[in-house]
Write a structure and sequence with these properties.
CATH class: Alpha Beta
Radius of gyration: 15 Å
Number of helices: 5
Structural class: alpha/beta
């Protein structure tokens, strides 16, 4: 379990392109984490830019887009990288990839959701895909931020973060 006395906890959200889901999860945790977490995001093959609809979704929900950028997970593997406490994959592709060895053995879980950046159709259909992804991520991140981390042993905490990855926007974690 992450050190219960350690505050804030460093959380990394991973996705292949780091242009939509992981960016939204990072911004949501910055908002709901209330200083208990430092949120980061990265990708195995970053697109190099944040999807404009993801940025619009964040703004529409009153979240800051300051500092949002698409970046490689390599930024979190070097000697100067923050010590990670939690690493969550938010896309199916990243869950199947070989991830770097994260120093300090952070707790990991897979919270995969469909990629809204891959949505096709008209503007309304694409916006709906982003809204759906945002709702699921907001629910999961909010559930995570509300966990009594200091009061849970490592196995219980792992069980809880795994269960959060199975929730949708309208159902509680098991």
């Amino acid at each position: 379990m992450p050190d219960a006395d350690h505050r804030p906890f460093n959380v990394l959200f991973l996705c292949t392109g780091n242009s939509a889901r992981s960016i939204m999860a990072e911004a949501i945790l910055r908002d709901v984490g209330r200083g208990a977490f430092v949120a980061h995001s990265a990708g195995s093959f970053p697109k190099g830019q944040v999807h404009p609809v993801a940025l619009e979704m964040l703004r529409r929900n009153g979240l800051s887009t300051e500092g949002c950028r698409s970046k490689s997970w390599d930024e979190f593997t070097g000697a100067r990288a923050p010590k990670l406490d939690f690493v969550f994959t938010v896309c199916d592709d990243a869950a199947g990839e070989v991830c770097p060895i994260w120093p300090g053995q952070p707790m990991t879980a897979h919270w995969g959701i469909p990629d809204p950046a891959a949505a096709s159709g008209n503007e309304a259909q694409v916006a709906l895909a982003f809204a759906d992804a945002f709702r699921v991520l907001k629910n999961r991140v909010t559930l995570f931020a509300g966990l009594p981390i200091a009061g849970l042993d490592r196995l219980s905490l792992q069980t809880r973060v795994d269960a959060i990855g199975k929730t949708t926007s309208d159902q509680p974690a098991a």
